[in-house]
Amino acid sequence: DIQMTQSPSTLSASVGDRVTITCRASQNIASWLAWYQQKPGKAPKLLIYKASSLESGVPSRFSGSGSGTEFTLTISSLQPDDFATYFCQQYSTWWTFGLGTKVEIK
Amino acid sequence: QVQLLQSGGGVVQPGRSLRLSCAASGFTFNTFGMHWVRQAPGKGLEWVAFISYHGSETYYPDSLKGRFTVSRDNSKNTLYLQVNSLRPDDTAVYYCAKKGVSLAAPAAFDIWGQGTEVTVSS
To answer: Which of A5, A80, A95, B81 would be B47's cystine partner, CB 3.0–4.6 Å?
Structure first.
């Protein structure tokens, strides 16, 4: 099974900060990686697919990069609506998620 | 608009069975594969099942094979998850999710249901 390791598990930041979350795959997944945002009591929402493609309707302050085993999600200027938990997911071989990164208010 | 509306769930005794439903609207249901994902309280996301657009192919993680059965009725635009011999560690919010593309290529999950809570307790 492909394991996904996210870091950090928690991130404290302020509005306007640039935020970066990292996801590592235990084996090469090419660009078959997605990022999701989840708020308490809500379903996950797709932000990024194929490592760097922005889902329709997602603000451009979100971006993704990487390939192979190392990936990043960047929020260029954190907004109040962005405080949430973020998950990466590989869909190269079956489907597995990272454990999540909670972005909280500093 | 594109929507997945879930039903079913609730409090169930250990050993009993449960069927969850997911009604699709706003897209051509019979051309997309569908998934189930669960999230235990305070935990991350766990993929539970996949079914192809025509229903002839189903996949499960090895850890869940045998107790979980995914099915679909394309005439009703509805996805199902049957869970048998429920255990306390099946307690979770269960989500249905749509495969992002109708082709055979790998795809993320672009639309999610609202989730339905399943609590296994005596």
So the answer is: A95
Mean pLDDT of all residues in A3-7? 97
B81 exposure class (CB count in 10 Å sphere: 0-12, 13-18, 19+): buried
Contact (Cβ atoms closer than 8 angstroms) between residue B72 and residue B82: no
DSSP symbols for chain B? --EEEEE--EEE-TT--EEEEEEEESS-GGGS-EEEEEE-TT--EEEEEEE-TTSS-EE--GGGTTTEEEEEETTTTEEEEEE-S--GGG-EEEEEEEES-SSSS---EEEE---EEEEE--
Judged by a CB distance cut-off of 8 A, whether residue B109 touches chain A is yes
B2/B25 Cα distance (integer angstroms):
6
User: CB atoms < 10 A from the CB of B119, how many?
Assistant: 15
Instruction: Show residues of chain B in contact with A50, CB under 8 Å.
Output: 108
Question: Which residues of chain A does B46 touch, with a Cβ-Cβ cutoff of 8 Å?
Answer: 97
The pLDDT tens digits of the residues spanning B5-42 come to 999 999 999 999 999 999 999 999 999 999 999 999 99
Q: Least CA distance to A102: which residue of chain B?
A: B44
Write out the two tokens for B92: 């979770």
In sequence order, what are the residues at sequence separation of 6 or more whose Cβ sits closer than 8 angstroms to the Cβ of residue B40?
B46, B89, B91, B92
Q: How far from each other are the two terminal CA atoms of chain A, in whole angstroms?
A: 36
